[in-house]
Amino acid sequence: MKHGLPLALLFLLIGNFLAWFQGNLQFISDWWYNKPWLTIALFSVPTASFFFFGWRFLVEHLDDSLWSARLFSFGLGTLLFAVLSHFVKGEVVTKKTVICILLSVSIVLIQAFWNDEPTRTAEVERGDEG
After folding, report:
1. What is d(CA 18, CA 52) in angstroms, rounded to the nearest whole number?
2. Residue of 61, 86, 92, 111 with fewest CB within 10 Å of its CB?
3. Residues 5-49 pLDDT 10s
4. How many Å apart are CA 118 and CA 122, to the nearest integer?
């Protein structure tokens, strides 16, 4: 069953959002810095769940292409990381970071909208060779 890009996007955004806070709350708050096991316990299952199902829906949407899903997911995670690091942690966005963000946007757009023909290898594995 295909759930489509919007559901994959939503789940991966939530997963990346939770992962950002799981890893970075320790640098935002002394209270969280001294409670690593609580942080791990609270964030691990929901974060992994959103990533698991977001990945499933994305791979299905991208015709079972793991590479396309990986690149899409990487670009999306990089974009959200940049936004959260700037607005929550107050990190300065440098020229180098802007260029990397633009590259991430390019990766996401290419993976989302560039329809590639199946490769010869995929056709042979399915028994479609002529």
Report:
1. 13
2. 92
3. 899 999 999 999 999 999 999 999 999 999 999 999 999 999 999
4. 6
SS (H, E, C) 24-37: HHHHHCHHHHCCHH
Q: Is residue 14 part of a domain?
A: yes
Residue 126: inside a domain: no
Structural domain span for residue 20: 4-118
pLDDT at 67: 87
Q: pTM to 2 decimals?
A: 0.78
Q: In this structure, is residue 124 part of a structural domain?
A: no
Contact 34, 87 (CB under 8 A): no
Structural domain count of the chain: 1
Q: Is residue 8 part of a domain?
A: yes
Helix (H, G, I), strand (E, B) or coil at 2: coil
Per-residue model confidence (pLDDT) at position 47: 98
Residue whose pair of structure tokens reads 């633009």 in the numeric block: 102
Q: What is the 3-state secondary structure (H, E, C) of 56-124?
A: HHHHHHCCCCHHHHHHHHHHHHHHHHHHHHHHCCCCCCCHHHHHHHHHHHHHHHHHHHCCCCCCHHHHH
